[in-house]
Amino acid sequence: MPKFDESMESMVDTFLFETGELLENLDEILMRAEQAEEISMIEESDIAEIFRTMHTIKGSAAMMGLQNMSTLAHAMEDMFFIIREKTYVRTDKAALFDLLYKSSDALKAELENLTDEDIPLTDFSEMIGHIHDLAAFFKGEGGNTEEQSDDVPADIFDDNEPADMLTYKLIYDDACQMPSARAIVLIRKLGAFAEVCRTIPPDMDDDNADGQIKNAGLYIKLVTDDRNAVEKMISAALNVENFELFTRDKLKAKSGGEKGGNNEISIPEGVFLPDDGDELLTYRVTYSESCAMPSARAIVLLRKLGAVSEVCRTLPPDMDADDADDAIKKNGLYIKLITDDTAAVEKMLQSGINVESAVKVDKSDAVKEAPKAGTAEKAEAQKTENKAETQAEQSPKPAAKAQKKEHKEQSMLTVKLEKLDKLLELVSEIVITESAVTSSPDLRELDTNLDRFNKSSRELKKLTDELQDVVMSLRMVPVSTAFQKMNRVVRDMNNTLKKNANLVFRGEDTEVDKSIIDMLGDPLMHIVRNAVDHGIETPEERAASGKKNPPTVTLSAGYESNEVVISCKDNGAGMDAAKIMAKAKKNGLLTKPESEYTEREIFNFVVAAGFSTNETVTQYSGRGVGMDVVKQNIEKVGGKLTVNSKLGKGSTFTIRIPLSLSIVDVLSVEIGSSSISIPALSVREAFSCTAENVITDPDGNEFVYLRDKCLPLIRLGEKLQLNTDITDPTEGICIYCREGAYEAVLLADSIVCDQQVVVKPFSPLLDGLHLKEAGLAGCSILGDGSITIILDMLSLLGGEKGEETSNG
């Protein structure tokens, strides 16, 4: 059975995206609303936003045919209706938000499973029951089961259930203290010669099961070849006072008795107008009581009808109106249409989801209802007058609405990320092709004047640069998208660990590539969990150590050169380098003598596989898995994870990821026969060096004196172990580079050109060579087909040896 309505298959991706966004925003609002001391103190704007969010999810899910999600959202909406209208007499804030978070998580989990046909739709009836019970508690009522003691469950009959499925309703006598236990025994016995498909209530182990059975009875849905044996066993069951075979006819009879019968149709004013032509047909559609949002179903049905008829108007006229659902539930949906194929229209109406009945009505039906208000003449006269007024009021509305739609501008457009990825790949290929054309060896052999070619190539480069900027801007989103999700992580951990940690954001407006945001989700969650679980002490421990400042985890983001830098800093206990070294030695992680390890290298052991500083395993950490995966995921996109800590003051985990994962401006230089690319943002100056400017200290370290500065000299040939004939700095080219707080002069043979290159990360097979630590960021293919190595300037200039962050 497909999960979605066939007509809505094309809307699945949009539904998943928009509903996912709504649920993420819902968590943020719930976090904000939960800060209020009492429910009565929650901001009205937050209550209204939550109410609107659930109303939207309810409608969207109903339109997609996902009745389970729609009903759960409807229950949450009803809960906040009570809060918004202040109809509660008592409250329980902790229970409310706990239930709301569980419901939000359930909807998120359902979204993830919707595209997998092997996973059935989740039954949220138990959770919905809890919400109804809490709503009844808020209103001061005894409970949801007592409130509906005389009602038949809305989902007693499923339109897709087999025709031979039988439904039995059992009533237990008052002397039975635990009818749920009796029900379990009976159901097991029935399994000998019947297939019990489901029961209401569904879970006999639930705390509310006994109350529901006592008030509403036990419903058993089963399929059997021996009905007599089934009924004989039910009648002989302990404490069963009576039972009956419950059918759809009995349900209709009950519904009819409550509403005064189904044969009388009260046709509302405005259905029939004086100028209605004979070709205009009128149909009345009623929806089942289990349909949570009939207006959404009506929209889908009207779209389908457009294929076989011309829909002229409906009553209610606007399906988006707030009172549309109530109007349809009360009077039904009236559709006025013109068609040449009445059979096709009626077949489509009858096949509509949740449609209980679809009948054709005419003016004579309306006339028959008129005498109820008095004499036929007076009623007809009044009706004609009312119709004229109705026509005068309603006629201009459709035209005004249509005009409004024509002038409505589309300001936002949702695009699949796969399309943007493809667009970025095409831009990358254009950059490579541009380089191949402008740097072609064939051009060097020409003696002709290339002024016009050079002018065109410069214009082409300008256009490709602009195209790249536009494409990258399309993919840029604020890092707050990933940060905000951590609020929920810290909130749940505080409830469990009782550490009362605060989460602070800095630079959350920093924009990064969407692919980086997608990658950051899991790493940030692991790092924040470690900060709260490992780093932050308990209130007693903080008091004992004299810490008066509140426990805080700070997430910050910003730009440094061509990288986005994201850090997670806590003011907790920090890490003991000696203990980490001892544990690393015990686990066999050392690759060189202990004395040769720097403090930074020691702290980086905490992200090694199988390493954990926790002595005991908790539900959040302590197994030595997670952080090594975090590091691997970051390195897959060319990023780097570093750790810094001060004992007693806290720890900082820093993530560095290239701002653009695709294209960078570089200065290409030659060292021997090799091509090396230096990121252009790190280059400050290129110059020729004189012998007087080269200084050597007593330890043999070389420096270049430049404008009152003594800068370290890095010979790229020696650093990268490349063969070159140029060893004298005065014969090569010196390039002054700066990255963050680090600066140096690089020595190369010559400068080739400045160009754009497409960054390609190194193969995972080379991970064991520690290329990034050696100062290599990646590689690229040049226009002539050769390969160039791109330098990691922070590592090369000595950034990895110093302190990147401080922990005050």
Automatic annotation (TrEMBL):
Origin: domain of life: Bacteria
Main location group: cytoplasm
Listed Low complexity bias regions: 391-401
EC number: 2.7.13.3
Domain CheW-like: 663-802
One Pfam family from the record: P2
A cellular-component GO term for this protein: cytoplasm
Residue ranges occupied by any HPt domain in the UniProt entry: 4-114
Signal peptide, first to last residue: none
Alphabetical UniProt keywords: ATP-binding, Chemotaxis, Cytoplasm, Kinase, Nucleotide-binding, Phosphoprotein, Transferase, Two-component regulatory system
Any single GO BP term: chemotaxis
Residues the record lists as Phosphohistidine modifications: H55
Start and end residues of each Histidine kinase domain: 425-661
Gene Ontology MF annotations: ATP binding; phosphorelay sensor kinase activity
Subcellular location field: Cytoplasm
InterPro entries referenced in this protein's UniProt entry, alphabetically: Bact_Chemotaxis_CheA (IPR051315), CheA-like_dim (IPR004105), CheA-like_homodim_sf (IPR037006), CheA-like_P2_sf (IPR037052), CheA_P2-bd (IPR010808), CheW-like_dom_sf (IPR036061), CheW-lke_dom (IPR002545), CheY-binding_CheA (IPR035891)
Compositionally skewed regions (Basic and acidic residues) per UniProt: 360-390
Catalysed transformations (reactions): ATP + protein L-histidine = ADP + protein N-phospho-L-histidine
Free-text function comment from the UniProt entry: Involved in the transmission of sensory signals from the chemoreceptors to the flagellar motors. CheA is autophosphorylated; it can transfer its phosphate group to either CheB or CheY.
Protein name: Chemotaxis protein CheA
Organism (species): Ruminococcus albus SY3
